[in-house]
From TrEMBL:
<protein>
    <submittedName>
        <fullName>Putative acyl--CoA ligase YhfT</fullName>
        <ecNumber>6.2.1.-</ecNumber>
    </submittedName>
</protein>
<dbReference type="InterPro" id="IPR050237">
    <property type="entry name" value="ATP-dep_AMP-bd_enzyme"/>
</dbReference>
<feature type="domain" description="AMP-binding enzyme C-terminal">
    <location>
        <begin position="302"/>
        <end position="372"/>
    </location>
</feature>
<keyword id="KW-0436">Ligase</keyword>
<dbReference type="InterPro" id="IPR000873">
    <property type="entry name" value="AMP-dep_synth/lig_dom"/>
</dbReference>
<dbReference type="InterPro" id="IPR042099">
    <property type="entry name" value="ANL_N_sf"/>
</dbReference>
<dbReference type="Pfam" id="PF13193">
    <property type="entry name" value="AMP-binding_C"/>
</dbReference>
<dbReference type="GO" id="GO:0016878">
    <property type="term" value="F:acid-thiol ligase activity"/>
</dbReference>
<dbReference type="Pfam" id="PF00501">
    <property type="entry name" value="AMP-binding"/>
</dbReference>
<dbReference type="InterPro" id="IPR025110">
    <property type="entry name" value="AMP-bd_C"/>
</dbReference>
<dbReference type="InterPro" id="IPR045851">
    <property type="entry name" value="AMP-bd_C_sf"/>
</dbReference>
<feature type="domain" description="AMP-dependent synthetase/ligase">
    <location>
        <begin position="57"/>
        <end position="251"/>
    </location>
</feature>
């Protein structure tokens, strides 16, 4: 592979629609000059250009349940999926991308680089607020959106009118509930909704389509091999192992005991199962799993049930340790809700062990720049509330 093939490139037709957005000019110049790029969600500037040959990308993990780690990857690991998305979804120079999140988050960083590589327009809309983002999407004729479900939910809450120009929405970083899916179909009537599962370390793992069963995050993305633990039996829940050309090189800073390589496969501690058709169903992270009444309980499964209930705007589950009872399930919930109805729904779908002991109403959830709930901050708020 030549140096040109290894580096990011700015296609001649690429257009920067928001030149004053934070990090926009630096991104543009660094790609054109072949510089390495570091993105950060916690520094004063979202991007930093770095010297060095060959070109590399450094981005932070989301830090939703621990300190962010600095991830190192080659441009080729992302360029491979740029070309797949371009061909599979018919993206070209006439398209315009909206990136709703901060460039310091790997999803937003990826989407911005995909846009300039393909030669589309790029609008960086972080910091505008939902109303400002909605107005900018109309003004720039946005056709393609990359976002988290939380970011999309905010757009639907403030904007009742439809966006007929939008053709595709790629979303990840959280499960989309059925209510939000209906709202998105109303606001974006011509858009294909593509849910993907992945992480900063893995990039794309699975991608959903119109045939994906409820509760699944789709089938393996092109050129991805999946394996569940050491079991050969379909339907068994186990650790998800991934092998693909999109995997990261390693951690530049920080480490995770859950990140393990084995015969070319990578695991980051996610648990799930595969059905006979190859659809992946997530259970949650090993690091968040707790044992209640001798049963393994995944907070993510509780969150999925809760956010689908009437009146729930957002939710996050924490499991603080009680010296007498052990792990207790606390569900922080935003919205006008009936606590008994929420417990009943969890009991019906997940069993008694997964019923939240406490429903904690909040006006808003603390959020990370990545668009995910800040679980560490939420746990701190809970501790302060109970001291």
């Amino acid at each position: 592979m030549t140096r040109l093939e290894e580096s990011f490139q700015t296609a001649p037709t690429a257009r920067l629609l928001t030149p004053d957005a934070a990090g926009a000019a630096l991104l543009w110049n660094a790609v054109q000059n072949g510089a390495s790029l570091r993105s950060s969600a916690i520094s004063a500037t979202p991007l930093q250009a770095l010297p060095g040959d060959p070109q590399r990308v450094f981005c932070e993990s989301s830090g939703s349940s621990g300190a962010p780690k600095l991830i190192r990857r080659s441009p080729a690991s992302w360029r491979a999926s740029f070309d797949i998305n371009k061909a599979q979804f018919g993206i070209g120079p006439d398209d315009a991308y909206a990136v709703l999140g901060h460039l310091g988050h790997s999803l937003s960083f990826y989407a911005a680089l995909e846009a300039v590589h393909i030669g589309a327009g790029l609008a960086l809309l972080a910091g505008l607020g939902p109303k400002g983002q909605a107005a900018a999407m109309r003004a720039h004729g946005i056709t393609t959106i990359y976002a988290t479900p939380s970011q999309l939910r905010l757009i639907t809450r403030v904007e009742p009118a439809a966006f007929p120009a939008v053709q595709r929405i790629f979303f990840g970083g959280g499960k989309m509930d059925p209510t939000l899916r209906v709202l998105l179909a109303e606001r974006f009537p011509t858009a294909q909704l593509m849910e993907f599962f992945g992480a900063s370390e893995t990039s794309f793992v699975t991608l959903s389509d119109d045939q994906t069963p409820e509760g699944s995050v789709g089938r393996a993305y092109p050129n991805v091999k999946l394996r569940i633990g050491d079991s050969e039996a379909l339907g068994d829940t186990g650790e998800i192992w991934v092998k693909s050309p999109y995997l990261f090189d390693g951690y530049e800073e920080g480490e995770s005991p859950l990140t393990v390589w084995q015969d070319g496969f990578l695991s980051i501690g996610e648990m799930g199962r595969l059905d006979a058709q190859g659809y992946l169903y997530l259970q949650g992270r090993k690091s968040r799993m707790v044992t209640v009444a001798d049963q393994n309980v995944f907070p993510e499964a509780i969150e999925t049930v809760l956010v689908a209930q009437p009146g729930v705007v957002a939710t996050a589950v924490i499991t603080p340790n009680d010296p007498v009872r052990g792990a207790q399930i606390v569900a922080a919930v935003v919205g006008d809700v009936d606590a008994s109805a929420l417990r009943k729904a969890c009991r019906a779908e997940l069993g008694e062990a997964a019923v939240p002991r406490i429903i904690w109403p909040l006006p808003d959830l603390p959020m990370l720049p990545a668009g995910k709930p800040d679980l560490q901050h939420l746990e701190t708020l809970w501790q302060e509330r109970n001291t």
